[in-house]
Amino acid sequence: MTPGPYYKLFLTPKYVDTKAGFEAIKAQTVRVGGIKAFENFSLPVPPSVNANDYPAVLVWCEKFSVFISSAQLK
């Protein structure tokens, strides 16, 4: 994945892999932060959020409302 200036990482309450799927649950997600590296990046989860409550992550281009990628967490 290449970083984009508007790419954001979200924790999601379920795995989705489409734009429509994300838009349907966006209000229930947690925006972790912007992606600014090509690989091996890490972002701090907000202290008030328990990451174990979210079984998936999603990368979204905020400016253009475009689904980029998603993954299930183990």
Quick summary of this structure?
The protein contains 1 helix and 4 strands, in the order E-H-E-E-E.
List the helices and strands and how they pair.
Blueprint: E1 7-12, H1 19-25, E2 30-34, E3 56-61, E4 66-72
Antiparallel strand pairs: 1-2, 1-3, 3-4
Descriptive tags:
single chain; 74 residues; mainly beta; four-stranded antiparallel beta sheet; 1 helix; 4 strands; 9% helix; globular
Write up this protein.
The mean pLDDT is 93. The protein is globular and about 25 Å long. Strand 3 and strand 4 form a beta hairpin. The chain has one helix and four strands. With 74 residues, it is mainly β.
> How many angstroms separate the termini?
20 Å
Percent of residues in beta strands? 25-35%
Q: What is the number of strand segments?
A: 4
Low-confidence parts? none
Please state the average pLDDT score. Answer: 93
Helical percentage: under 10%
Based on CA atoms alone, the radius of gyration comes out at 11 Å
Helix/strand order, N-terminal first? EHEEE
Shape: globular
Structural class determined from secondary elements = mainly beta
Number of domains: 1
